[in-house]
Amino acid sequence: MAHMTAPAPTVGFDLDMTLIDSRPGIHACYLALAERTGTFIDADLAITRLGPPLAEELINWFPAEQVGPMSDLYREMYPDIAVAATPAMPGAREAITAVQAAGGRAIVVTAKYEPNAKLHLSHLGLEPDVVVGDLWAEQKAEALREHGAAVYVGDHVGDVRGARTAGALSVAVATGPCDATELRTAGADVVLDDLAAFPHWLTGYRVASGG
To answer: Which of 55, 106, 124, 162 is most buried as measured by Cβ atoms within 10 A of its Cβ?
Structure first.
């Protein structure tokens, strides 16, 4: 063969605020948790800092010894309240399809509780090859390495750290709580406005890596 194409890459994606706009569903779930427990939770504030694990948010509203049981309660309430309320981010479907159409594998690696992550994807008809939940920041590198991801796409500085720890290219989208400057400062290799720009970027990346 005279012409070699780059091997099809495995690309990891974060979930909340990368593939899905989880703010409306999470907002509703925090309000329901507040009502059920009689505890004030500022849901408007909570959804401005999505990304880290649930426990890191709940510690702001509940005593430490209640965070475990409240996390369980939240996760139990979540499917009925949050899933239908949560849309895909613009370009999410096309981003996953672009990877798979190139012969690559699209994997989702998220801090979200894995069963609920799968419910979101299934509800929206998004079909990645693998879904791994319950991993945050540097921990995400475990799954990225295991599946041989060359690229990790996320919206949070924690996602940048996960990509770098895994030795993957960090592609950041400025659709979450961290702006483009923060993402660049954290060490993102590429910063896109949103996922709509991803398929075009992927084409260029594959050419540059030996297409």
So the answer is: 162
